[in-house]
Amino acid sequence: MAGRLQGKRILITQADDFMGPTFADAFREEGAEVLEDRTDLTVPAAAAEVVAAAGEIDVLVANLAAPSDAAYAVKVSDERWNHLFDVMVHPMHRLVRAALPAMMERRSGKIIVVGSATGLKAAPGTAPYSAARSAQVGYVRSVGVEAARFNVQINLIAQHFVENPEYFSEQFQQTDAFKKLMAEVPAGRLARPEEDAALAIFLASSESDFFVGQAIPFSGGWAQ
Amino acid sequence: MAGRLQGKRILITQADDFMGPTFADAFREEGAEVLEDRTDLTVPAAAAEVVAAAGEIDVLVANLAAPSDAAYAVKVSDERWNHLFDVMVHPMHRLVRAALPAMMERRSGKIIVVGSATGLKAAPGTAPYSAARSAQVGYVRSVGVEAARFNVQINLIAQHFVENPEYFSEQFQQTDAFKKLMAEVPAGRLARPEEDAALAIFLASSESDFFVGQAIPFSGGWAQ
Amino acid sequence: MAGRLQGKRILITQADDFMGPTFADAFREEGAEVLEDRTDLTVPAAAAEVVAAAGEIDVLVANLAAPSDAAYAVKVSDERWNHLFDVMVHPMHRLVRAALPAMMERRSGKIIVVGSATGLKAAPGTAPYSAARSAQVGYVRSVGVEAARFNVQINLIAQHFVENPEYFSEQFQQTDAFKKLMAEVPAGRLARPEEDAALAIFLASSESDFFVGQAIPFSGGWAQ
Amino acid sequence: MAGRLQGKRILITQADDFMGPTFADAFREEGAEVLEDRTDLTVPAAAAEVVAAAGEIDVLVANLAAPSDAAYAVKVSDERWNHLFDVMVHPMHRLVRAALPAMMERRSGKIIVVGSATGLKAAPGTAPYSAARSAQVGYVRSVGVEAARFNVQINLIAQHFVENPEYFSEQFQQTDAFKKLMAEVPAGRLARPEEDAALAIFLASSESDFFVGQAIPFSGGWAQ
Question: How many Cβ pairs closer than 8 A exist between chain A and B?
């Protein structure tokens, strides 16, 4: 039996980070051909080059991550602030701008932004991170509508509390701070990366053809 | 290869109406055993009886529908108003109350409320309907959190613009009013029932174990 | 200097309960004539009679309250469930239906629903209450749009954590449960009733002429 | 009788643009001392200098505006994209970072970000602008919670469709495109700047002490 992504060519950015490795494996298991890119996308010209080099793709996964070091906003330097936008926000636009026209012309394609539930709900201690993640949400909402008439679907995974060495190290999972954090998650646990991948497969497949510009909370009920 | 709902017993209410027939077919194709109920749930005692008669179920689909006749709120009689709540809101609570305890005890189960995007966004001309559908959303949000700690997931499909003889007759689809309506849908079309079923399968399967109390817009971008 | 509500006739329902007494005082201080009604609005015919008896009014305050006894949804009887809708939801529609036509004809008027932030955000332990309060939100959103073209504004105060003997007794405020609750409120305190009245004055005055069908969170940041 | 802002010192940035002149007049009429700043805040060091030069202030109005030229996202250059963030997003953080510590120390103060309803709802044709405005919303939500415990309130006016030569020229108001746009606004008209100022006065005064990190839609019902 063919996988749910049989025959699809999928480009994943920052492929070694964040959800990159998990999504790549999951997509392959469903029959996709996965192009894993590791280019530094903070270089302005990089996004266009990466997309051009990939050739025709059915799905672009804008997997863009920077660590969300907690700090009160008043302590956050311009350098740290800019880094968040340089890594997560500006390359998103450059990737979409590069990949979307061909999809619109073919009247087929999907873009998935791997975002954060902190783009939907207050996360004190990470206001700059929330700002950058909210920019992603706002962008996807509007460009998603622009793309929909051309049968291209752009959506965002608004995730939080997913097992991930970058955000939740084994060490941190042993602390009281972690236990306290889990009390805020209705599910009472972290998600397994494979559960997140199940949502990504749904969004990458034709099953989500009626989803337009949505930021789907994936956070164990923290954001709804 | 086993279906995504292999071995699941799924109870669907109002099985001849709204999404009932489509969901039943789709669930069966994924390997589920589907119990189709057609009992009139406006009778207060009915919900408990239906759930008891079903025996152990893995998934309850609270498929509750009343036509959404457009009318300015000031024209809507008590009779019409009460009918909307009697059909869509009150039985939802009675079904959840009947089915949830056994699921919580087994620490496994799912409840899907087939709701409406008009529960998330203004729909002038259908204020009473929006009120009833919003009640569903508010209920699912909160009871979803209550159930999550017991590993039971309760979520809602906030759908609109799905091909359905009840809401979008062939005849209506030929009118200018329909064309005008479609201009408000970013996807520019109605969803095929099968697309809606794909979301229902996702929510009925273990793929959605980290979704808690969510009202997921399924409306071609009308609500996001 | 004239008050901000000089010359306005304002009808408040359930005038001895919830925000009734505070709002009445505050409106009078701003120059309004306040009609305090204490009729039992669960009687279907009552709303129309109350509105008719009031004569021409500029502002209707649908102040409808039932205690929000915490209980897991699975424990909530039909009687309790129905009471919430009978007190807070159904009379809201009957009041709007009675008062709105005259306002639309005069192309001037305001309706304020005194609602709850639990109509916007999960409140585990009070799912039935949240359902009823969400119904209010959904209704206001849609009927608010219907009324706007006639220059009538309908909005809702989505309040929570307001000092009020009904919801937060002096006794309860001494408990650990209360302290724990306050930790969930970013403001770290209950609102004084007068602060809530300031929002009500804003919504009752011409200052809110551009507010349409909005549910404005007033909850110290709990809902945003 | 004293005005509602009697004795308050209010700093407004970009004072000649966007809501600057209207808000300054309105604040003065309510008794405030208004400091109108016209410094170019795209210069990284400028925000701290402006705040330092202002001395003790009770209210900071982060009035940051760049024109929202409509264009499909795929057509928007890096230069245009960066300009939106350089003008509206990055200076917001620098202003808050400069002004908030003194307010937190005094346990009193307010910050109002003059933002946009496009930060809350899809606005196809202005995705980059929506992204920048959403970043503002996300930032205010989270930093608002951080500030609340120190009795400092940070909120955002999510406005749209306010009479303003920058966004709605007299010329544009004569076009069919404008009429079509107004059909999307439930209020059916633009807001008068004074109506917007009424909300700003509310947020600048002690009347909003229980508002925390909120983005309040002011858009005639377009966003709710």
Answer: 89
Identity of the residue in D122, D221, D224 whose CB atom sits nearest the CB atom of B224: D122
Chain B contact for D171 (CB, 8 A cutoff): no
- Closest chain B residue to the Cα of D121, Cα to Cα: B224
- Banded pLDDT at C2 (limits 50, 70, 90): confident
Q: Does D86 touch chain A (CB under 8 A)?
A: no
Query: Are A45 and A95 in contact, with CB atoms under 8 Å apart?
Result: no
Of the partner residues C148, C191, C215, the one whose CB lies closest to the CB of residue D186: C148
Rounded to the nearest 10 degrees, the angle between the axes of helix C127-148 and helix B127-148 is 150
Assigned token pair, C20: 């009734």
Mean pLDDT of the region B5-19: 97
Q: How confident is the model at residue B112 (pLDDT cuts 50, 70, 90)?
A: very high
Any CB–CB contact under 8 A between B121 and chain A? no
Quick: pLDDT tens for B207-222: 999 999 999 999 999 9
Which candidate from B195, B196, B210 shows the least CB-CB separation from A191? Answer: B210
Range of the domain at D146: 9-218
Main-chain dihedrals φ then ψ at residue D169, nearest 5 degrees? -65, 155
Query: DSSP string spanning D120-147?
Result: TS--TT-HHHHHHHHHHHHHHHHHHHHH
Closest to B218 (Cα-Cα) out of A212, A224, A146? A212
Chain B interface includes C223 (CB < 8 A): no
Any D CB within 8 A of C141 CB? yes
Give me the mean pLDDT over the C58-81 stretch: 94
The pLDDT, as a whole number, for residue D70 is 85
The CATH number of the domain holding residue A63 is 3.40.50.720
Give me chain B's average pLDDT, please.
96
The tokens 């709804």 sit on which residue?
A: A224
pLDDT of residue A84: 97
For residue C4, is it within any domain? no
Does residue B146 lie in a domain region? yes
| B181 lies in some domain | yes
Q: Which residues in chain D have Cβ-Cβ distances shorter than 8 Å to C196?
A: 210
Q: Amino acid identity of C79?
A: E
Give the helix/strand (H/E) hosting A10. strand A9-12
Considering only CB atoms, which chain D residues are within 8 Å of B219? none
Query: Quick check: is C223 in a domain?
Result: no
What is the number of structural domains in chain C?
A: 1
Per-residue confidence (pLDDT) for residue B151, from 0 to 100: 98
Q: DSSP of B172-214, one letter per residue?
A: GGGSHHHHHHHTTSTT-SPBPHHHHHHHHHHHHSGGGTT--S-
| More confidently predicted of A2 and A150 | A150
